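Q&A log
Question type: sequence-to-structure
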Amino acid sequence: MPARLRVTQTKSTISQIARNRATIRALGLHRIGDTVEVPDNPATRGMVRQVRFMVSVEEIPAEGASAAGAHHRSASPAADAPATSEEKA
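Response status: OK
Response body:
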């Protein structure tokens, strides 16, 4: 599950019921085009679902995870560094 959600307000809160206006404010959005990153948990997913017709949502992958989920091992820096004159002797 992604660590964060990027939520962007796409429609105005004018003529919306007060509950939906309050949800948009609680998400940290203030005007059309505003974007916030919120934690991905059941509470914020429920808030986004309630106002899904006024926002667009992107899932932001967790910091440490790779896109495909594959684990790749990087070579040690010493193996990639060119040999110095002291090491050649």
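Response note: The chain has a mean pLDDT of 83.
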